[in-house]
Amino acid sequence: MLKFNWCYFWIAILIFITEVLIALFVNDRIIRPYGGDFLVVIMLYCLIRSFVIWSVNITALLVLIFAYSLEVLQYFNYVDLLGLGSFPIARIVLGTSFQWGDMLAYSLGILFVFIVEKKLRT
């Protein structure tokens, strides 16, 4: 069922702005590669919850499957297979290299969602 939720929407926007700032101004070995992946699943979760009324479990599971799927596709260089390899923005957004650390960051991001949602519900 569709229903707009301003709270989730604004959280998604704030995380998106944070992601852009990380991409533009942070060039380290922890925050940029793993902090961004941690935040992106939270942002996607909030974006979905902004528009649909799904349970926390369903939404979080779908976001995690989506993130894992993209990461696995990176192993097969899908950006190049799609013919997008020469577009820097596509390489940044879609990613170009498989990393087990990214899978961990996605998992921790979704775990964070579960913890926050549980705290808010009690």
Give the arrangement of secondary structure elements.
Layout: H1 6-25, H2 31-51, H3 56-75, H4 78-81, H5 88-94, H6 100-121
Overview of the molecule:
The chain has helices at residues 6-25, 31-51, 56-75, 78-81, 88-94, 100-121. The chain has 122 residues and is an all-alpha fold. It has one domain (6-121). Helix 1 (6-25) runs antiparallel to helix 2 and helix 3 (56-75) runs antiparallel to helix 6 (100-121).
Give the topology string: H per helix, E per strand: HHHHHH
Biggest β-sheet strands, sense, barrel: none
- The total strand number stands at 0
List the uncertain runs: none
Q: What fraction, in percent, of the residue positions are helical?
A: over 70%
Radius of gyration: 15 Å
Outline of the structure:
The chain is mostly helical and 122 residues long.
Question: Notable features of this structure?
Answer:
about 120 residues; globular; mainly alpha
